[in-house]
Amino acid sequence: MDLAPEELQFLRIPDILRESISIPKRSPKTFYLITVALIFPLSFAILAHSLFTHPILAQLQSPNDDPSQTPHEWTLLLVIQFCYLIFLFAFSLLSTAAVVFTVASIYTSKPVSFSSTISAIPKVFKRLFITFLWVSLLMFAYNLVFVLGLVMMIIAIDTHSTFLFFFALIVLLVLFLVVHVYITALWHLASVVSVLEPVYGFAAMKKSYELLKGRIKYAAFLVFVYLTCCGVIAGIFSAVVVHGRGHYGVFTRIVIGGFLVGVLVIVNLVGLLVQSVFYYVCKSYHHQGIDKIALHDHLGGYLGEYVPLKSSVQMENLDV
User: Fold this and answer.
1) pLDDT (tens digit, 9 = 90+) per residue, 243-300?
2) Which of 181, 190, 77 lies closest to 133, judged by CA?
3) How many of the other CB atoms lie within 10 Å of CB of 226?
4) Does the keyword Cell cycle apply (predicted)?
5) Which of 41, 67, 172, 247 has its CA 20 to 30 A from that of 182?
6) Are 181 and 223 a contacting pair, CB within 8 Å?
7) Other CB atoms within 10 A of residue 58 CB
């Protein structure tokens, strides 16, 4: 990002995307290793886990299924899902930590390498984990309301209530298109805050909420596009690779599956880069100057480097 901090507030969505895509050129080897070691396993797991769960679900739904094997199949399904969620959670936070730390290092002209990024991850991971726990509480409340909406829709279908059906439909659409997208934007920005500022958990969520003011339309659009891309990729993968055995040959499914994993890797990498750049855009929009020296020292603290006592790592209302 060669622009002055005060100029970042004027970036539009195409500009944000352009800036994000150009960042890996500053340290191609580092981003290549991050992509291979962290983002690729994450993307592969997101798509490939259905290959393991689909046969089990099909067997459970089959009328010819042996009842004596049902407990074993359910246990296997739950174990796979549990391992998948742990893997997804871990690599999602690891990828976020690695990309945000690397982008910030480039922004402050700090030497960048894959080894330094990996060395910083343990301390960054702890902060992201605490923030994730707070976001999980918010997501739990959201999912509870979403389930109530589904129950209303089921009741409306059973009772043939047109009014209740459309009411439940509107509730579900609002929850997904507004609440879900907003919570996702809040989470992504809070993750960046947790890495780059001396706050995390609820404080990071509060900071994220403040930063989103005035830029929520941008955030909503970016998150919606990201979720849509992921949904389309997952849908095609499910239709062709998972359920397309009778219509597509093995070679065709392998090629298409590999291509879709590659596309998802790119989408996830760009998404992580965008959320990093968007943080600086929001800071600039609210005229919160970013002290690059303080940020440089803050990043060095993750690596066990000496941090001057005069630096409070406070990155608000400072002149660059």
Assistant:
1) 887 788 889 999 999 999 999 999 999 999 999 999 999 998 888 877 777 787 778 7
2) 190
3) 20
4) no
5) 41
6) yes
7) 11
How confident is the model over 12-23, as pLDDT tens digits? 999 999 999 999
Report helix, strand or coil for 79: helix
Distance CA 282, CA 35 (A): 26
- Model confidence pLDDT, tens digit, residues 42-87: 999 999 888 888 777 777 777 666 676 677 778 888 888 888 989 9
Cα–Cα distance between 129 and 263 in angstroms, integer?
Answer: 27
Q: Which helix (H) or strand (E) holds 307?
A: none
| pLDDT of 309 over the 60 cut | no
Residues in the chain: 320
Structure-block tokens of residue 260: 């879709």
Q: Which residue has the tokens 């990996």?
A: 118
| Closest C-alpha to 277, from 35, 33, 27, 106 | 106
d(CA 111, CA 27): 10
CA distances 19 to 10, 26, 47, 49, 87, Å, are 13, 11, 28, 33, 30
Question: In the block, which residue shows the tokens 């996830």?
Answer: 268
**Cα gap 94→307, rounded to integer Å:** 24
Mean pLDDT across the chain, nearest whole number? Answer: 84
Which residues 6+ apart lie within 8 Å of 249 measured at CB?
none
Q: Strand runs (DSSP E) across 133-243, as ranges?
A: none
